[in-house]
Amino acid sequence: MGFRGSFFIIPIIILIAVFSVWPVVQSFTYTFFDYQLNDRTKAGLYLNERFNVELYNESSTYVNLFLKRDMPNITDPEDVAKVEKLLARLDQLDKEFEDKSGVVNINEEVKNKVELIYEDARELVAALSEKYELQTEQNLPKIVNDIDRSMIESNFVGLENYKKAFQDDFVWVALKNTLVFTFSSVALELVLGLGMAMIMNKSMRGQGFIRTSSLIPWAIPTAVAALMWSYLYDGTAGIVAQMFASIGLINEPTDLLLTSGGAMTAAILADVWKTTPYMALLLLAGLQTIPKSLYEAGAIDGADKAQQFFRITLPLLKPAILVALLFRTLDAFRVFDLIYVLTGGGPGGSTETLSIYSYKVMFAQTNFGYGSVIVMIMFVCVAIIATVYVKILGANVMEKN
After folding, report:
1. What's 240's domain CATH number?
2. Which of 127, 147, 152, 245 has its CA 20 to 30 A from that of 359?
3. What percent of the chain stands above pLDDT 90?
């Protein structure tokens, strides 16, 4: 029966493997390559040298065309013979690739032919340019160089991308910004969320309406919420920026999003406003599992409200706090859309998180090899955070169970 029951978890295992494990493995693989989509010699994962047939055919065609066009200007019979010999070699090599396309593997013999033709063509074109007035003197050397570029070297770099990341100041700044944003916002959300949860846990008139309305900020899409807060923070007409300036928190309304401290504070406040209801919802579920009889017994024993909170509520709420903190910390550490819409990582990279930096490297620069290293750094940090939470908060929970 147990063996048959195990078949029910096979779909879950497949989903986890496809949507969770495989992307991580793929990203990890990219970290060992200099994988750049804006460079066609690196727009793939090449462990061995390869040959770009289309680039070679294009280069060979233009070399033939340009040399034949300049043939009337070449008067020395010996030079003419060299040009004809080179053209014949190019034609012969063209025939070897006439039924191939794209990027292909080649053996050592063909590789040597290509390299030898390139060297001979480069030397011949240089000699002809010095000796004769060629019509294509400016373009011919560049076309010849494309023959050499047809040989695609392996872009496997091993641990070089990791070494580069650890020496990259932008990575450390982004990591610092991510940690500041994560722990500041989660700490505020825990305190405010616990207060909201305790209020919503009280028996009162309109309890359902209060619980429902409190979840409205969390239900708003993050990009929409960020856009809304960008208007409130605007230095010229934003009411929040004007209010902060009037009570002396900032010197000028424009300082809120145009200074490093103001921009980070603004991002944290926007995140706290949006996700505190989610934290409160998780903690409310934990509060409702605590029997009312424990509070009655505590009151009979003379415990006041503060003592009941620290002796009854917090210890019994620890499993719910673990879940809430774990979910919110991991979510905050991966923050992207809120800061991207609100500040774009500015000013001067002061709010640029690891997610935003990896996005810029991978999609703005199309450097997927190095960008994947930043993603793996995030993955390791998330794993460390989860482990620490489980060790610190989860140990006592498991012991009590």
Report:
1. 1.10.3720.10
2. 152
3. 25
Question: pLDDT digits over 59-79, tens only?
Answer: 888 888 888 887 888 788 888
- In this structure, the strands spanning 103-104 and 151-152 are unpaired
- 91 and 70 part of one domain: yes
The pLDDT score that the predictor gives to residue 396 is 53
Domain limit, last residue, from 124, 152, 180: 152
Helix (H, G, I), strand (E, B) or coil at 50: strand
Do 329 and 184 touch, CB atoms closer than 8 A?
Answer: no
Q: Are residues 140 and 269 in the same domain?
A: no
Tokens coding 246: 């009037």
- C-alpha span between 9 and 366 (Å, rounded): 38
CA atoms of 86 and 67, how far apart (whole Å)? 10
- The answer to the question of residue 32 being in a domain is no
156 forms bridges with which residues in the sheet? 33
DSSP element (H, E) containing 52: strand 50-52
Cα angle for residues 387, 390, 391 (degrees, 5° grid): 80
Q: Please report which helix (H) or strand (E) contains residue 374, including its range.
A: helix 368-400
Same domain assignment for residues 114 and 227? no
Render 240-294 in DSSP notation, one character per residue. Answer: HHHHHHHTTSSSSTTHHHHSHHHHHHHHHHHHHHHHHHHHHHHHHHHHTTS-HHH
Supply the range of the domain harboring residue 377: 163-400
Q: What pLDDT does residue 182 have?
A: 94
Tokens 């500015």, residue located: 346
Inside any domain, residue 218: yes
102, 54 Cβ separation under 8 angstroms: yes
Rounded to whole angstroms, the Cα distance separating 32 from 157 reads 6
Does residue 29 sit within a domain? no
Structure tokens at 243: 């209010």
pLDDT tens profile 153-188: 888 888 999 999 999 999 999 999 999 999 999 999
Record the tokens describing residue 30, joined without a space.
Answer: 């990219």
The pTM for the full model equals: 0.80
The domain tally of the chain equals 2
Distance CA 342, CA 325 (A): 24
